[in-house]
Amino acid sequence: MCGIVGYIGSRPAVALLVNGLKRLEYRGYDSAGVAVWEDGRLAVRKSPGRLAVLEQQLTARPVTGSLGVGHTRWATHGEPTELNAHPHTDCTGRIAVVHNGIIENYRELRAELEQQGHAFRSQTDTEVIPHLIEAELAAGAPSPEEAIRRALRRVQGAFALGLLFQEQPQTLYAARRGSPLIIGVGQGENFIASDVPAILDQVRRVIYLQDGELCALRADGVSIFRLDGTPVVPVIQEMTLAAKAVDKAGFETFMLKEIHEQPRILRHLLLQHAWQEDTVAMPGLGLGAPYLRKLNRVMIVACGSAFHAGMYGKLLWEQLTSLAVETDLASEFRYRDPKIDPGTLVVAVTQSGETADTLAALRMAKSWGCKVLAICNVPGSSVVRESDAVFFTEAGPEIGVASTKAFTAQLMAFALLAIHLGRARGELGAAEARASLQAMQAVPDAIHYVLDRAEAIRRLADKHHDGPSSLYLGRRFNYPTALEGALKNKEISYQHAEGYAAGEMKHGPIALINEYLPVICLCTRTRDEVYAKMISNIKEVEARHGRIIAVATDGDEEIVRLAEDVIWVPPLRDEFSPLANVVALQLLAYYSARARGTDIDQPRNLAKSVTVE
Ligand code: F6R
């Protein structure tokens, strides 16, 4: 969602702020702005649209100074206009604030402040913060710190904040509750950022600000307090991400780079966890065998692509263990009455570890006494910090808004954990585990095989991209693959796409089939008992003159007779076939988007990490 960068030191702040914001561009935004302490006053520049527009403004009306905050906004309250862009200021322009999150009681606070005579300029929830602080200072708060504390005690909702005061040229303030914020610790300079990539090329040491903390940064040090004023001893950590992990490495987009990274990432996960013949190594997992043996129920919660990974995980865990496994959308789970007891393991699947609904579901589960296992890609994220156990997907920073490598790493995580659970619970024999592990080792090469055929997939996308809609069909393990393929397509190419369980065709969607509709059928074959059923479903489409694009196993003659076009994948065991099949669908979506001329890394209206409900 929104991005925050702040700087205090001796270098020109604007270049560092813009550089940091550029590195957060992938999160999605619709306006941007900076505030810089310049010659005794706060200079603010903001503009709707892309960062390039703000940069033009900064060239036309430059600001100098070595203390500043910057922000990219993803509109929640109020249109993406210049007035609604951050930073927001108080009535006098002496306090500037950038904010991520949502102030839930802003209407009441705004009404109260307006009654006191405060003049608001924007429609945002954020603007109440500088006015509240201004009011607390006017009411006698002895310092800006105390005014921030008093103001934030009145605020309900989530926030990560960067704050500047005209009267405080030596201090940058930061605070958080609910939304992530990090402090970058440099030599004679310090940074704040909402996400690591923003400052990765500037500092190697970071402090993860905790919920309910307020930080005062000077050029030569930081002081951290709880919002009640209690001092906190900062814990400085070394960053492990290499700066190059946030470069395109010669690819035309981050998404294409990330699609190509998949074989390496999955091979790495296999090397880490699957180096023994018939067991999986999970040294840092944090769930012991006695707990796993007693377990009888699992609830997987997630959103979007991570939810599709959870659907796959359910099928695999049910197949290899006696566990009863359910998967739910975190946004639905929050509002139902799921009859969960402390004996249930809740699995939170999330790339970012900051998705608001997943985090809320996790907190609910913990309040019921359940243990939570996170499958997550971001160390130090909120979900990681609040879970009892973590499986790190180790896919590296995912910059493209549409998830690719984090998704396949989640599938691999479920596959490895399935074997671990089966073995720990004594339900999976050594021979079966060995066979599964051997089959998994073939996955990275199978993905290479698909990537090597990218050009053929591009030609297919060029042929089929211009229709209004497409349908994706799959069964069993490839039903989640169909949903994920359709999601990728609509996210980046803006073509309506629907994923369906192929067996449901006759119950409605078959009405859509005509000679124009591309129907992408996942029909890979090894020993899959649903293969024959899938063939029948394809014949139903054929009989109604649908345009069949099959994803099929190399050498399958039957498919050639039925389909207009085929994307070939090598043979994999059924349960692991989604890992290669989905890569074919990622490429299909990618090249359709390219043919349709969309902004692939930053599709419209989307944000990388959905930190609001
Ligand atoms: C789709 C996509 C989203 C995310 C979803 C959950 O390509 O990226 O659907 O999967 O917003 O995000 P995380 O995994 O960060 O919780």
CATH superfamily placement of the largest domain: Aminohydrolase, N-terminal nucleophile (Ntn) domain
SSE class: alpha/beta
Bound molecules: fructose -6-phosphate
CATH class of the largest domain: Alpha Beta
Q: How many domain regions? A: 3
Side-by-side strand order of the widest sheet: 3-2-4-1-10-9-11-15
What does this molecule look like?
- This protein has 613 residues and is α/β, with parallel strands linked by helices.
- Helices cover 36% and strands 22% of the residues.
- α7 runs antiparallel to α15 (443-452) and α9 (304-320) packs antiparallel against α17 (478-493).
- It is globular.
- The model has no long low-confidence stretch (mean pLDDT 93).
- It binds fructose -6-phosphate.
Structure keywords:
7-stranded antiparallel β-sheet; 613 residues; 25 strands; 20 helices; Rossmann fold; Glutamine Phosphoribosylpyrophosphate, subunit 1, domain 1; binds fructose -6-phosphate
